[in-house]
C-alpha cells in the first residue's frame, strides 16, 4: 500500500496498414495487413445515433467501496441530478439493490469523492466550490437517524486533503493537510472524529511538497525539490518518546530524470523496511525493498517486462507483495504471491476481459469488490468472497450502455520521425469496421484527441468521448506522444522542453501515419483536447495552420509565460521541475524568450481554421485569462472564434447540465467542420450556465436555442 501524501497538485487533470500483434514472447510486432477494398465490400447501415445524455449523464453507480468492517457498501449515484453517496448493507445488496438509500443530498456539483473511516458507519466526503479545487471536507455518520454532515475543513482559499492510512488502534483519529498558514505548504493536523477537536501534528516550515507515512500513521520522510528539479528525501528523527521531531536529515536524493518513476511504494508490516518504485539506472524501473535504516541493502522484488509498473498490490495486514500490474497496450496483472493465485484465476473466468481492479474491506481481506473494464461496454462489478470462492454479479456502472452498439479501441505502435515508438489507440465507427479489425472500409474524417498532463497518458478502455466521436462518424486517434508516462524514463524525459516542439511533431507524425494507412482523410482532421490537450489544439492551429481542419481547446493555456506566473500557490514547491519540463523559466531572459516562442498566443495571427474554446471561469491551474487573451488577439486580427465560458466550473466541467451543453455545441462544431452526424441541440444551452463570449458560427434556432451553424 502507498501511504504517501503529495502536497503539490499535478498539471492536468492522447493507425493500410500495420496491425499490432504479439510475438511468442509477448512483445508487440508489426504485421502487414491488406486494406479492405471499399469498392467490393458492402457497407452496413449506420449505427443508431446514441443520445448525448446516454454517454455524458451521471453514471448509475461509481466509486463503489466496502466499509472497513465489510458490512456496508457505499457508492456514488445520482440524487438531485448530481452524484451523492448511497449505502446498502452487503447482505441486502446481494438480494435487492433497490433497498439502497442516499445519505447525502448535495445539489449543484455533488460529491467529488468519499472514503470510509475505521469508525463504524463514518464516512468523509469532499467537494470544492465551483471548480476552484480548494477541497472542503465533511464527516457523516450514516448510522444516525439524522443525516447531518459535519464540517471538518471549509475555509475560503484553503485546500484540504485527507491523509492515509487511518489508525486501526485509534479509529476515531484522522489526519488532515491544510495550507491555511502558508498557501504554498500544507501543515498536518490530527482530528478527533468524536469530539471534533484538532491539534497540529506537523508544521511544514521545512517546505516539503510531499510527506511519507508508515503503516502506523507515523511521519517518516518528507521530500522537497532541489534547484535542479530533483527530489531530496529527508528523514524525520523523532524524540525517544515519539512525541516530537527533533531534526531532519537527508535520506536520499532522486534526480529530476528519475523522479517521474522513483517514489515510495509502502512499508513492511513492522515498518522496518521500505518499498520503492525505483528508476535509478533502469529505464522502466523496478520494485525493490530495503531496510529503512540501511538503504544500500536492496532486494529487487519485480522487474517489469514491457512498461513501467502501473501498480503494486500489497496485503493490508502483513504488507507482503501480492501482485503487480503493467500497462503497455492494456493492463496485465502478474501474480507474485501464491496465496491469491487461485482467486485471480477464478476472477479471470467471469468476464470476457482479464482487466479488472480489486478493492476490499480494510479490516476484512476476504471480501473483495472486483471491477471489470472493457472498451465497448460499461464497467461491471462483482462481489467476491475469498472464503467460499463465490463471485456474485452486482451491476454495471451504466446499464443503458449495455444495449448500445459501441466501438472497439485498438492499440497500435507508430514511429516518430526520429525513430521513437509511440503507443497509440485507434477507434472507428462500428459501421466502418464491422469485424473489429481496426481498419475502416476507407478513409474517414478523424479526431486527434490529445491527452492532458502532458505527463499523463491514454489508456485502453471505455471512453464516453471516444464513443461519442465514433458514433458521429469519426475515426479517433489517441497518441501517447513523448513525455507521456508509463513508457520508461527515457521516453518521459524526451518530452522535457518540447512543448510545441517534438511533442507536437509526434502528433503530426501519428496523424500522417493515419493518412498513409488510409484511416484518415487528410483534409478532415480535427485536433481537440483539454488542459495540455487544449494547448496542443492551439499549437496545431498556430504552428501548423494548414494541417488541421479545425480545433477545440478546453481549458488550455495559450501563453506559457502567464501560465507559469499564475500557477496555484501550492504548486510552488514543484516550480523547478515544472519550468524544466516546459523548457524555460520566465524569471530569466532566455527562459522568457523560449516560452514566448512556444506560446500559441505569439502566433495567433496565423490561425485560419475554425476554433472552439471552452473555459471554466474558476480554473486555478489554467486561469481564464489564458483563453481571454488569445480570444482578444483573434478579434484584433478579425479571426472568428467561438468562445464559451462556464462561470461555475474550473479545470474541466463537472455539472451535468454544463457537460451536456459543452458536448452539444462541440458536436455541432465538429459536424460543421468534418461533416459527421449530430444530435439536434434542444435545451442544453439554456439549462446550463454557459456564457457565449464570442460568436464564431453560433446562432439561435426557432426556439431561441443556441446552435452552431
Q: Look at the structure and give the mean pLDDT.
A: 91
Estimate the strand proportion: 25-35%
Outline type: globular
Helix content: 10-25%
Major sheet strand order: 31-32-34-33-35-36-37-38-39
How many β-strand runs? Answer: 41
Uncertain segments are 1-42
Would you give an account of this structure?
The chain has 709 residues and is of the alpha+beta class. The protein has a domain at 270-336. It is built from 13 helices and 41 strands. It has a nine-stranded mixed beta sheet with strand order 31-32-34-33-35-36-37-38-39, with helices on both faces. It has a five-stranded antiparallel beta sheet with strand order 1-16-17-18-19. A four-stranded antiparallel beta sheet has the order 4-5-6-7. The longest helix has 19 residues, at 656-674. Residues 1-42 have low confidence and may be disordered.
Describe the SSE topology.
Elements: E1 4-6, E2 18-22, E3 28-32, H1 52-56, E4 62-66, E5 72-79, E6 82-89, H2 90-93, E7 101-102, E8 113-116, E9 122-127, E10 136-141, E11 150-153, E12 160-163, E13 173-182, E14 185-192, E15 198-202, E16 210-213, E17 219-225, E18 231-238, E19 245-254, E20 263-267, E21 273-278, E22 286-291, E23 299-302, E24 309-314, E25 321-327, E26 331-335, H3 341-347, E27 356-361, E28 364-372, E29 380-385, E30 390-396, E31 409-415, E32 421-427, E33 444-450, H4 464-471, E34 475-479, H5 489-493, H6 502-516, E35 520-530, H7 532-543, E36 550-554, H8 560-565, H9 575-582, H10 589-597, E37 611-616, H11 624-636, E38 642-646, H12 656-674, H13 684-687, E39 691-694, E40 698-700, E41 706-708
Parallel strand pairs: 33-34, 33-35, 35-36, 36-37, 37-38
Antiparallel strand pairs: 1-16, 2-3, 4-5, 5-6, 6-7, 8-9, 9-10, 10-11, 12-13, 13-14, 14-15, 16-17, 17-18, 18-19, 20-21, 21-22, 22-23, 24-25, 25-26, 27-28, 28-29, 29-30, 31-32, 32-34, 38-39, 40-41
Amino acid at each position: 500500500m502507498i501511504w504517501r501524501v503529495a502536497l503539490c497538485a499535478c498539471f492536468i487533470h492522447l493507425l493500410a496498414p500495420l496491425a499490432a500483434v504479439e510475438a511468442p514472447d509477448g512483445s508487440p510486432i508489426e504485421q502487414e495487413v491488406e486494406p479492405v477494398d471499399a469498392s467490393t465490400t458492402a457497407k452496413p447501415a449506420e449505427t443508431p445515433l446514441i443520445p448525448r445524455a446516454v454517454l455524458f449523464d451521471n453514471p448509475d453507480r461509481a466509486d463503489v467501496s466496502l466499509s472497513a468492517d465489510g458490512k456496508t457498501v457505499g457508492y456514488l449515484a445520482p440524487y438531485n441530478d448530481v452524484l451523492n453517496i448511497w449505502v446498502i448493507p452487503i447482505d441486502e445488496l446481494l438480494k435487492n439493490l433497490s433497498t439502497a438509500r442516499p445519505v447525502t443530498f448535495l445539489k449543484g456539483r455533488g460529491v467529488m469523492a468519499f472514503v470510509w473511516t475505521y469508525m463504524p458507519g463514518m464516512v468523509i466526503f469532499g467537494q470544492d466550490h465551483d471548480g476552484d479545487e480548494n477541497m472542503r471536507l465533511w464527516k457523516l455518520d450514516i448510522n444516525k437517524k439524522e443525516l447531518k454532515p459535519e464540517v471538518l475543513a471549509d475555509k475560503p482559499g484553503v485546500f484540504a486533503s485527507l491523509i492515509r492510512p487511518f489508525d486501526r488502534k485509534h479509529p476515531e483519529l484522522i489526519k488532515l493537510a491544510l495550507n491555511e498558514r502558508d498557501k504554498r505548504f500544507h501543515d498536518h493536523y490530527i482530528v478527533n472524529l468524536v469530539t471534533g477537536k484538532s491539534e497540529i501534528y506537523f508544521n511544514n516550515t521545512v517546505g516539503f511538497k510531499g510527506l511519507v507515512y508508515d503503516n502506523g500513521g507515523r511521519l517518516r520522510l518528507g521530500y522537497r525539490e532541489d534547484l535542479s528539479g530533483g527530489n531530496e528525501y529527508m528523514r524525520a528523527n523523532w524524540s525517544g518518546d515519539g512525541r516530537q521531531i527533533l531534526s531532519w536529515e537527508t535520506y536520499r536524493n532522486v534526480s529530476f530524470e528519475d523522479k517521474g518513476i522513483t517514489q515510495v511504494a509502502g512499508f513492511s508490516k513492522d515498518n522496518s523496511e521500505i518499498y520503492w518504485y525505483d528508476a535509478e539506472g533502469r529505464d522502466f524501473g523496478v520494485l525493490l525493498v530495503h531496510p529503512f535504516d540501511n538503504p544500500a541493502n536492496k532486494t529487487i522484488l519485480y522487474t517489469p517486462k514491457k512498461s513501467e509498473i502501473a501498480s503494486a498490490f500489497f496485503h493490508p495486514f502483513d504488507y507482503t507483495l501480492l501482485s503487480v500490474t503493467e500497462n503497455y497496450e492494456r493492463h496485465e496483472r502478474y501474480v507474485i504471491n501464491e496465496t491469491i493465485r487461485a482467486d485471480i484465476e477464478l476472477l479471470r473466468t467471469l468476464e470476457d476481459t482479464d482487466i479488472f481492479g480489486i478493492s476490499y474491506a480494510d479490516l476484512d481481506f476476504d471480501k473483495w469488490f472486483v471491477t471489470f473494464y472493457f472498451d465497448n461496454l460499461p464497467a461491471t462489478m462483482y462481489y467476491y468472497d475469498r472464503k467460499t470462492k463465490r463471485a456474485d454479479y452486482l451491476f454495471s456502472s451504466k446499464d443503458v450502455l449495455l444495449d448500445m452498439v459501441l466501438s472497439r479501441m485498438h492499440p497500435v505502435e507508430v514511429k516518430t520521425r526520429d525513430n521513437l515508438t509511440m503507443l497509440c489507440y485507434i477507434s472507428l465507427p462500428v459501421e466502418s469496421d464491422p469485424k473489429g479489425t481496426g481498419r475502416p472500409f476507407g478513409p474517414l474524417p478523424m479526431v486527434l484527441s490529445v491527452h492532458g498532463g502532458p505527463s499523463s497518458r491514454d489508456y485502453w478502455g471505455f471512453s464516453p468521448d471516444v464513443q461519442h466521436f465514433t458514433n458521429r462518424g469519426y475515426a479517433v486517434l489517441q497518441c501517447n506522444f513523448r513525455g507521456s508516462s508509463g513508457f520508461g524514463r527515457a521516453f518521459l524525459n524526451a518530452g522535457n522542453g518540447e512543448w510545441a516542439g517534438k511533442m507536437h511533431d509526434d502528433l503530426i507524425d501519428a496523424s500522417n501515419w493515419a493518412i498513409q494507412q488510409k484511416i484518415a482523410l487528410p483534409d478532415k482532421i480535427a485536433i481537440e483536447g483539454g488542459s495540455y490537450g487544449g494547448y496542443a489544439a492551439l499549437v496545431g492551429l498556430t504552428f501548423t495552420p494548414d494541417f488541421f481542419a479545425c480545433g477545440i481547446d478546453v481549458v488550455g493555456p495559450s501563453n506559457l509565460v502567464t501560465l507559469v506566473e499564475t500557477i496555484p500557490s501550492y504548486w510552488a514547491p514543484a516550480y523547478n521541475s515544472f519550468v524544466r519540463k516546459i523548457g524555460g523559466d520566465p524569471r530569466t531572459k532566455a527562459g522568457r524568450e523560449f516560452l514566448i516562442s512556444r506560446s500559441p498566443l505569439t502566433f495567433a495571427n496565423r490561425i485560419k481554421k475554425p476554433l472552439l474554446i471552452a473555459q471554466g471561469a474558476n480554473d486555478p491551474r489554467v486561469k481564464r485569462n489564458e483563453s481571454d487573451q488569445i480570444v482578444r488577439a483573434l478579434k484584433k486580427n478579425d479571426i472568428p472564434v467561438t468562445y464559451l465560458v462556464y462561470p461555475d466550473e474550473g479545470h474541466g466541467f463537472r455539472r451535468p447540465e454544463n457537460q451536456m451543453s459543452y458536448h452539444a455545441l462541440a458536436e455541432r462544431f465538429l459536424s460543421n467542420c468534418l461533416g459527421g452526424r449530430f444530435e439536434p441541440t434542444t435545451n442544453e444551452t439554456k439549462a446550463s450556465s454557459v456564457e457565449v463570449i464570442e460568436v464564431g458560427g453560433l446562432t439561435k434556432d426557432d426556439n431561441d436555442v443556441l446552435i452552431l451553424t
